[in-house]
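A.,

Following up on our hallway conversation. Structure tokens first:
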């Protein structure tokens, strides 16, 4: 089992940037495919970005964030990041980190693809 703790959320103006971090503890970090999801107010949780285990050679993004968000992982620090640039008010949500232990470099895009979740961090983008 892995424990995930997100940080880096906050209030930012439209067009600004934030970097979210998710620190993991427990099992060996490199065995996990990792993802970021978000849940806007009153809406379902949705996929944002994902990165595959080990070297992170496979990366996927939701269409709504392509070209603006960048996911990366630092295996030495047991941390996955989400760099968010050109933020928009519609990016306002609680952002969750997720992990799934797997021998495959598969990046899932649904909640069911991930067994472990952080508690979330709030991101608010003002217009």
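Then the amino acids I'd put at each of the 127 positions:
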């Amino acid at each position: 089992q892995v424990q995930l703790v997100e940080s880096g959320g906050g209030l930012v103006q439209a067009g600004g940037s934030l970097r979210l971090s998710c620190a993991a503890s427990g099992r060996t970090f490199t065995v996990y495919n990792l993802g970021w999801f978000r849940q806007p107010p009153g809406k379902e949780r949705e996929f944002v970005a994902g990165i595959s285990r080990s070297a992170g050679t496979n990366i996927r993004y939701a269409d709504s964030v392509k070209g603006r968000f960048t996911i990366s992982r630092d295996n030495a620090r047991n941390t996955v990041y989400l760099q968010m640039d050109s933020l928009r008010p519609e990016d306002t949500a609680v952002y969750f980190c997720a992990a799934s232990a797997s021998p495959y470099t598969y990046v899932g895009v649904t909640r069911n693809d991930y067994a472990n979740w952080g508690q979330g961090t709030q991101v608010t983008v003002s217009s």
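The longest strand covers residues 18-26. Curious whether your intuition agrees with the design.

B.
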